[in-house]
Structures are given as structure tokens and as C-alpha cells.
């Protein structure tokens, strides 16, 4: 007789994924929702809406829930609908749009670079939604993690998480401090990784002790995402002690070529079916072969991300220069996408399990696409806002500047403020929901209600922590 654990594991395993285009549409919905949110809150309509948290939730979070549930077969129509609403809001600012070309040299982005905050937060929000939604039948199986090869909506999450950390890393911000002794450097890094290692051990012990469902071919028997993050930090510390940060792209390509060469010469087969060609696992390393041997791929992703982040932390004097940055990102997007389709078609299909070349190029392609959309939106909103403020009377301007001194309600800023803790909390809440109800037998309407309540709770907690300036740093 099949146990509940076995039944659930069968429900979440054995999938082949979807297309590159569909994953790109899913991530674009998240980015367009950010743009729509900003347009709404700089419009006069926003002053009449209460409570603002609910409005922001409906604009930012709910579209992401709908896109992986009820509207999963209508993504293109959904994108056109969001575009239409954005166009209406843009029409309200037609005077500013006309003046855009002539005043690009007079305005600059905020030092905090909102588009980076949004990218990092969107990754966390979408991951939080997916890790619970995948347990419900309403979540399309093609968006779940693939068993071996393919483009699964959830496959890209861990890669985007690595990019989100890389683009704001000390290496990307030119704040990397070289230390004379490697051992001292690694010792310091291991100490900073202790919270991640502790979380990894805690998750392992919890999952095994309560017999919680798990997907062994994701990372292995004992390995998990927290161990991957800790191992990456330690390995990259050693690597950046040896090579210059300026050579991140070159080293990323070298690591990726060596990694793919091993995979193409029999290592892929070993990772997928083991030494005995029957999927068995012998010994600690063999038991966790997916988690351990995928690390070179994630190192390449991180180093590509560092190089991408270095674009953002160079001194840009105005919006015109930021538009030049968008061109550079667009070129990178095209190059990574071409590399993806060449390697996917002629070398080896994309595989999160192997973190092969196709997977790395896929992650970087989608990352560039998302950042490009968010940066263009940030440039537009910054300019519109600057023109809007110029037309205000001095007394009203002073009053609104005072108001802006307080923290605005912004779910994405709050999530970014405690990103890893929010991710951890999402995992805990997902576990509690799964222990409370038989998720893979829940009706669609109830699943949407649970998902909405879960995300509302998560957003509310993140806002409370943010408004109290309470940041829980886990690394």
C-alpha cells in the first residue's frame, strides 16, 4: 500500500518542464507587475485607496499567484492585459513622456538602485509562491522541477537566487578586500557560513525525523539549498583569492567549459543513474552527487552575476548613461540566449540537476531579461517622478518630502531587507501547511485561498520587520 509520503513524492517528481518562452513570460509578469505598482502609486488614484498594503498585494503578489494557477494557460493574454493597464497609466503622464528625450541628462537614478531591490525581491516572492503552490493540483506540473532535463518554472529559482546575491556582492560593488593568507580568509568565510550550515543541518534533521516528502534527485539524500549556498561562499572565497575579480567572466567560462567537458564525457550519466546504472547511492558523496557535482555550474553563475553587477555599481551620472547600461544588458541577454540554444541543441539539454552549460546560460539569459525590464521601468518612473515634483508648489513639495522621509509601504523593499530570513520563513510555513492539510488533494479554489493567505502573512511579517528596522542577517 502506498504511503502518504510516497504518494506526495510521486506527485511532485517525474516532470519534463515547459518551454523557455513560457518561463520567460512567467518572469515578465513579475517584472511588469512591479512597473504597474510604481505607476499606480505615483498616480493621483493611489491617494484614494485604503489600505495600501492590500492594493500593493493585489498589484504585485496576486498576479504571480494567478499566473501559476488559474491563468496558467492564458499567460500571453494576461501579459497583454497588464500592458494595457500600464499603457493607460502612461497616457496620464504623456507630457512627461514627450519631455523624456530632452531631459535625460538632468536626472539620475536613486543611489539605492530600486531595480536591483525589485529583482532580488521578485526572486524571493516567486520562490515563496512556487514552493507551496507546487504541492497543490492547481499548480501546472510543467512548471514543477524537471526530473533531469528541460525548462521547469521552478528549476530556475535557485539559479536566480545565486545571481541575486552575486550582483550585490562585495566583488560586484568593488568592495572586495583581499587578504594575505588564504587559510585565514577561508576560516573567516566558514565562520560567516555557520548560520547557513546550521540551517542546512536543521532542515535535514527535520525532514528525516518527521518523514516529510522530499525529492532526492534534486540535491541528493542529505544535501539541500543551504549547503549549496555555504559551499559556494567557501569555494568562491578561495577562487577570488587566486584570481582577480576583473577576470570573473573569463574564469566563469573556463569553469563552465571544464565542467561541461566532464559531463559530456560520461559524468552526466553517473550523476543521473549512478555507478551501477540503477540509480543506487553508495557512500556519503555518491548519495549527494547532484548537490556536490552541480557546484561548478553555480560558481559560473555567480561569477557571471558578479560581472553583471559591476555594470550597476559604476558611476552613472544621469539617465542617459543608464540607458547605455540597458543596451549592454540587452547585448548580454542576446548572447546568453544564443549560447543557451546552441548548447541546449548541440551539446546537452538544460539540466538543473547537472547545472550544465545550457542551464547556466538559461539562468543568465532570464536574469538579464528580468533586470533589463526592471531597469527600463526604473528609468521611466524616476524621470516621471522628477517631472511630477518639478510641477508642484514649494509648500506641497516640502510637505511631501517630509512624508517621504518615513518608510513607504513597499512589500518588495521589505522582502529584500530580510531576504534569506523570508525565504526560510516561507519554507517553514510551507511545511506547516503540508502537515496541516493533504495538499495534493485540495480543490483549486481552496488552494488559491491558502496561497493568498500564506503570501499575505509572509508580506505582513516582512513589513513589520522592515518598519521596525529589524534585520535578521543569516550570512
Helix and strand pattern: HHHHHHHHHHHHHHHHHHHHH
Number of E-type strands: 0
Low-pLDDT windows of residues: 392-406
Count of DSSP helices?
Answer: 21
Average predicted local confidence, pLDDT: 88
- End-to-end Cα distance, whole Å, is 44 Å
Basic shape: globular
From the alpha carbons, calculate the radius of gyration and give it in angstroms.
Answer: 23 Å
Helical content class: 55-70%
Which band does the percent of strand residues land in?
Answer: under 5%
- Structural classification: mainly alpha
The biggest sheet amounts to: none
Keywords: Acyltransferase, Endoplasmic reticulum, GPI-anchor biosynthesis, Membrane, Transferase, Transmembrane, Transmembrane helix
Subcellular location: Endoplasmic reticulum membrane; Membrane
Family: Belongs to the PIGW family.
GO molecular function: glucosaminyl-phosphatidylinositol O-acyltransferase activity
How would you characterize this protein structure?
The chain is mostly helical and 475 residues long. The chain is 69% helix and 0% strand. It has helices spanning 4-12, 20-41, 52-60, 62-67, 75-91, 94-99, 114-133, 156-166, 182-209, 216-219, 225-242, 248-273, 284-287, 289-293, 295-312, 319-346, 357-390, 394-405, 411-417, 419-436, 444-467.
Summarize the entry for a quick read.
Keywords: Acyltransferase, Endoplasmic reticulum, GPI-anchor biosynthesis, Membrane, Transferase, Transmembrane, Transmembrane helix. The protein is built from 21 helices and no strands. With 475 residues, it is an all-alpha fold.
Strand and helix map with partners:
Blueprint: H1 4-12, H2 20-41, H3 52-60, H4 62-67, H5 75-91, H6 94-99, H7 114-133, H8 156-166, H9 182-209, H10 216-219, H11 225-242, H12 248-273, H13 284-287, H14 289-293, H15 295-312, H16 319-346, H17 357-390, H18 394-405, H19 411-417, H20 419-436, H21 444-467
Helix pairs in contact: 2-5, 2-17, 7-8, 7-17, 7-19, 7-20, 8-15, 8-17, 9-11, 12-15, 15-17, 16-17, 19-21
InterPro entries: ATPase_P-typ_TM_dom_sf, PIGW/GWT1
Keywords: Acyltransferase, Endoplasmic reticulum, GPI-anchor biosynthesis, Membrane, Transferase, Transmembrane, Transmembrane helix
EC number: 2.3.-.-
Amino acid at each position: 500500500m502506498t504511503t502518504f509520503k510516497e504518494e506526495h513524492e510521486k506527485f511532485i517528481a517525474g516532470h519534463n518542464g515547459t518551454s523557455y518562452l513560457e518561463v520567460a513570460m512567467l518572469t515578465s509578469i513579475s517584472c511588469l507587475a512591479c512597473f504597474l505598482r510604481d505607476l499606480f502609486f505615483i498616480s493621483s488614484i493611489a491617494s484614494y485607496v485604503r489600505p495600501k498594503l492590500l492594493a500593493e498585494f493585489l498589484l504585485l503578489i496576486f498576479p504571480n499567484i494567478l499566473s501559476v494557477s488559474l491563468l496558467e494557460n492564458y499567460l500571453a493574454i494576461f501579459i497583454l492585459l497588464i500592458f494595457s493597464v500600464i499603457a493607460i497609466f502612461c497616457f496620464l503622464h504623456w507630457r512627461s513622456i514627450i519631455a523624456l528625450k530632452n531631459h535625460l541628462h538632468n536626472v539620475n537614478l536613486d543611489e539605492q538602485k530600486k531595480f536591483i531591490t525589485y529583482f532580488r525581491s521578485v526572486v524571493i516572492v516567486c520562490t515563496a509562491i512556487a514552493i507551496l503552490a507546487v504541492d497543490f493540483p492547481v499548480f501546472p506540473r510543467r512548471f514543477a522541477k524537471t526530473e533531469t532535463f528541460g525548462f521547469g518554472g521552478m528549476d530556475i529559482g535557485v539559479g536566480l537566487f545565486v545571481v541575486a546575491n552575486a550582483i550585490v556582492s562585495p566583488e560586484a560593488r568593488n568592495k572586495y578586500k583581499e587578504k594575505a593568507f588564504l587559510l585565514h580568509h577561508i576560516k573567516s568565510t566558514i565562520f560567516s557560513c555557520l548560520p547557513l550550515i546550521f540551517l542546512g543541518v536543521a532542515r535535514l534533521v527535520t525532514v528525516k525525523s518527521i518523514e516529510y516528502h522530499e525529492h532526492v534527485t534534486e540535491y541528493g539524500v542529505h544535501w539541500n539549498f543551504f549547503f549549496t549556498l555555504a559551499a559556494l561562499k567557501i569555494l568562491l572565497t578561495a577562487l577570488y583569492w587566486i584570481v582577480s575579480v576583473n577576470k570573473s567572466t573569463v574564469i566563469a567560462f573556463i569553469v563552465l567549459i571544464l565542467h561541461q567537458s566532464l559531463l559530456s564525457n560520461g559524468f552526466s550519466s553517473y550523476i543521473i543513474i549512478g555507478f551501477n546504472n540503477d540509480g543506487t547511492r553508495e557512500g556519503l558523496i555518491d548519495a549527494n552527487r547532484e548537490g556536490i557535482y552541480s557546484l561548478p555550474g553555480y560558481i559560473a553563475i555567480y561569477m557571471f552575476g558578479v560581472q553583471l553587477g559591476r555594470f550597476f555599481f559604476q558611476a552613472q551620472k544621469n539617465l542617459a548613461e543608464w540607458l547605455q547600461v540597458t543596451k549592454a544588458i540587452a547585448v548580454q541577454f542576446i548572447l546568453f540566449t544564443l549560447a543557451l540554444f546552441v548548447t541546449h541543441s548541440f551539446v546537452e539539454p538544460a539540466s538543473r540537476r547537472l547545472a550544465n552549460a545550457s542551464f547556466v546560460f538559461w539562468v543568465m539569459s532570464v536574469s538579464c531579461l528580468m533586470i533589463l525590464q526592471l531597469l527600463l521601468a526604473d528609468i521611466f518612473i524616476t524621470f516621471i517622478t522628477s517631472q511630477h515634483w518639478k510641477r508642484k508648489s514649494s509648500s506641497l513639495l516640502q510637505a511631501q518630502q517630509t512624508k517621504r522621509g518615513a518608510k513607504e509601504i513597499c512589500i518588495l523593499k521589505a522582502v529584500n531587507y530580510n531576504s534569506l530570513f523570508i525565504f526560510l520563513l516561507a519554507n517553514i510555513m510551507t511545511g506547516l501547511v503540508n502537515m496541516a492539510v493533504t495538499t495534493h488533494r485540495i480543490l483549486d479554489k481552496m488552494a488559491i485561498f491558502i496561497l493568498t493567505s500564506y503570501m499575505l502573512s509572509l508580506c505582513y511579517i516582512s513589513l513589520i520587520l522592515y518598519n521596525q528596522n529589524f534585520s535578521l542577517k543569516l550570512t
